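This protein record is not my work; I was only asked to verify it. The record follows directly below this note.
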Amino acid sequence: MSRRLYGWLTAVMASVPLSLGYLLADALTEVHYRLFPARRHAALANLAVILPRASRRERVAIARDMMRSHNRMMFEFFRLPHLGRSELLEAVDVAGREHLEQAVARRRGVIITCTHVGNWELAAVVLAQWGYVLHAVAGVQLARWLTPAVRETKSELAIHTVAPEDGFRKLLRALEHNDLVALMVDGDQFSHGTRLDLFGRETSFPAGPAVLAQRTGALILCGYCERVRPGRFRIVIEPPLDPAAFPDSTSLIAAVARTSERHIREHLGQWCIFRPLWEVLPDRAAEPAAAERSVEA
């Protein structure tokens, strides 16, 4: 049933003229903003950290831009299964493709880190259309009951979805085969992170890219896919981060965080994150005491 409904949704969206689809997505921005208070509060809380000197009115305007971008991304996402290869590639400009080609030539696999800017799903399909085997880590997508249908559709687009609970084994195997591994890094949603400063405040940042790179020698490429205008996109692939150039995984993931921070800051209006990134972290001073009590017990 979920596969049938998802197929119906993609077919309907693909039949809607591009201009009308974007018009409807934009028109629903205020509905998104008003009817989803948890998303609204999370976006404003994140923006308060990133833009501490901005007024509330300025942050509210950006939060609306973020929701407008998310609405547009969802319209584009449902159209993806019905886009032809030539139509897709003609809609995208690319900067830094040579970095990807050089990294693949090393034959140690490639780790791609990305933020929720613009349309990250479209970027994954473009990489697959270039002929690369892509493994993307993703949890629940759209809704739990729709996740199998989404994953099945992605597999038809040559994207292999890896669940967080699968651990590193599948990712290590993919890198051994010189495949691409894509990891979203704006938000440690799987609770396996390294504490570091992001936008001047401590948070937990995903450590997976650095751990994988240190174990395999794979290069890390940070990138994003921005929407230049309705129906037009630009993929940017940064120069590689070589794990051999960093003394440990902590310094490597800090470099990934700095690059990701720049990507987010430069595209705040297209940043589609609606969960708070700066949760209250455990008191470090209390940790040794807790460990001591555990030993005594």
Observations:
- The beta strands are 92-95, 110-118, 134-137, 159-162, 180-184, 193-198, 201-206, 219-229, 232-237.
